[in-house]
Amino acid sequence: MIIKTKIKIYPSIFIHIPKCAGSSIKEMLQDLNEVSDIHSKIKDDIVTLKNKEIDIEKYFIFTVLRNPWDRMVSYYFFYRDIVKKNEKIANKAKKFDFKDWISCIYENPKSFDFIYDNCLDYLTHENKVMVDYTINFHEFSEDIDNLKNILNLELPILHINSSEHDFYKDYYSEKEIEIISKIYKRDIDYFNFDFEKTTQMNKIINEDKINTIINKKIIL
Questions:
Q1: I want to staple 12 with a disulfide (CB 3.0 to 4.6 A). Which of 3, 16, 25, 78 is the partner?
Q2: Can you give the pTM of this predicted structure?
Q3: Backbone dihedral region of 164: left (phi > 0), alpha (psi from -120 to 50 degrees) or beta?
């Protein structure tokens, strides 16, 4: 999502990863942007900018990341209780309990291919992770406050499309823990996610670009 602002801030791109508070961020930024793509990957935004002869390096790129075991629980309840499209996937969620749904996903990867996308699939272009700042879903308010300070914005804290369910750990046995470890292995290795600790995550913070923004050395 390329942010086209009505006020002068640093040019920015928000990478909306499914079930990582993207709808909340979109709603929070609604008065500041036009949305070019809801769940765009960075490689798609790079193509859009190149067509306009704009250098991606001139953009501040941020995203929200979420513990993958918690994210999969959110996927399940979103499709079971909220979603109005993707009937095949929704019907599976309505038919199965969480553990059987996970087994179904693992045994039928082609039918659930987009769920197999790691966060890195949204953030990587030509083997480079193109992000300047990552927000931890589980430290959302604190990290959004930091984002507000970086971009000098006033943003409301909202939670949109959130599904209602118990604590994610309650839905897992060792079997499902291992399945998610395999599906999201690249994310788990790169960001150091841990089943036991939602706050554990290797954050990406591009100090040089952030200092440039804060010091208002903006090139438009």
A1: 3
A2: 0.83
A3: beta
**Rounded Cα gap, residues 20 and 191, in angstroms:** 15
Distance of CA 38 to the CA centre of its chain: 11
Give residue-wise pLDDT tens across range 144-168. 888 888 887 776 655 555 566 789 9
User: What is the spatial distance between Cα 65 and Cα 120, in angstroms, rounded to a whole number?
Assistant: 10
Predicted confidence band at 180 (pLDDT cuts at 50, 70, 90)? very high
pLDDT of amino acid 30: 64
Q: Tell me the CA end-to-end span of the chain in Å, nearest whole number.
A: 18
Q: Rounded distance, CA 153 to CA 151, Å?
A: 5
> Higher model confidence: residue 212 or residue 170?
170
Asked if residues 185 and 77 have their Cβ atoms less than 8 Å apart, the reply is no
On the 0-12 / 13-18 / 19+ scale of CB atoms within 10 A, 180 is buried
Alpha-carbon distance of 155 to 8, in angstroms, equals 15
Domain boundaries, the chain: 2-214
Q: What is each CA distance from 99 to 114, 137, 195, in whole angstroms?
A: 19, 23, 16
Query: In 10 A of CB 27, how many CB atoms?
Result: 15
pLDDT of residue 218: 47
Task: Name residue, tokens 């798609």.
Answer: 44
Contact yes or no for 154/148 (Cβ under 8 A): yes
